[in-house]
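Hello support,

Our group uses your service weekly, and this is the first time we've seen a run hang past the timeout. The protein is Major facilitator superfamily (MFS) profile domain-containing protein. I'm not sure whether the cause is the sequence or the server load. Input pasted verbatim:
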Amino acid sequence: MGGILSRIVTTGTINCMGVFLDDLKKAFSSSSTAQISLVFSVAPALLEGTGVLASFLMSKIKARYLVIIGSIVATIGVLMASQTHTYLVLLLGMGIMNGMGQGLARCILPIAITFSFDDKTRHIAFAILNGGDGVGGVLGPILFSYLIETFTWRNALLVVAGMTAHLTVSGCTVPLTLTATNVEREKRKMSTTQTHQRKISTTVHSESEQRFAVTAASTSDRSASGSPSVEIGAEEEQKDQDMIDEPDVPLFPNAIFFLSNIITHSIAYFIFMTFVYSDMKDQNMAPGTVSLIVAIIGGVSIIGRVSICVMTNKVIPRWVIYMSGHIIRSLVVLCFQIPLPNDGGSTKTVIYAILCALYGLTDGVTGSLIPLICVDLFGLKRFGLVLGLEMFLMGLGAVVGVPLAGLMKDYFKSYQIPFLFSACSFMVAGLVLVPLFWTKKRYQMVSKVDKKSRLAERKFSL
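Update from on-call engineer: The timeout came from a worker crash unrelated to the input. Re-ran successfully.
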């Protein structure tokens, strides 16, 4: 519950902050769109990139206290932003302090979940955790738009500060024993346990081979009666052995393709999510209607996040689905710039709702597939390294893309060019993965043929 609360708060209050853009531009009229956009880029950049800082601080401070400290820092930052009339204080409070404080919670809670659940329940915990992103994406636009319309943007930020303060509740769910030292000790313990289990399995397997001639008939009878115990045990043993015996997968050239995808995807994603509110408002759509339409992205993304449970490499490689999702999102963003008839807003509302639903579905799928793609392309041994680089580049893309799009808005006096830039970035993010068709032998994917041959070998050995 602490994990899902942290995702609701971090996604709802940072990734959906674009709803404040127009009001902040009016309040800080001396600041350009690019300067205001910098605030909205620094926060998600620090949210994604605080992992390195969190890892270092965990060696000095207990994880629970880190999350609570981060919550306090973020809350103070938002409170400062709600009362300031100075741009630099706005950048410091709403951008730096808010992003860094919430980033501690977003990075530490998944670690706590990893070591709080066993192999049988961990995937369920992470499914619930990822669902929090979708819930935050639904609640954020609707709630903030209502508060701004009913009160003011300053009072709305007071509510945001109250939401970030609830991260202290998430912090209280983190075990006091979770520190960097204990995490490494748990890893060594898990590795030792797996090694011990493999030794036992090897001994048992050797003894079973010696008794093979005596037990062949009874084993055949059990197989005929549908008893799955032997097959399941062999399959679990094979999984453990595959993980330990996994060869070192070369980082290059696949790392170039994947990390290029990440930074271009980040640029496109944060540009779209920051300016989509203002773009639709410029087309004379009511703020309440705009917030409801954008909330569809978060709602439908939950379906996309859940759907990855059935996505395996058996028929279509996961990276192909991942690549296709970026190309689809590119086309969706382009469709936002198609001129629509002015018929009172009903046609626009329906079309934009459909486009946001398609965007949300592909966003949920691609976002949730990233950890699996890391394993498919680079193996378990390099998973931590590649995922850390992915988070860093996601933050870098936010810092680069959003202010650049703000400069485009100031120069061209329209959101059309920033949206075209976002669409092109999504397209590049998809096409840059095309070379994987020729380097597919370098990534880890168990084909149906390999699986069938292993199953046949196990049955023959029995």
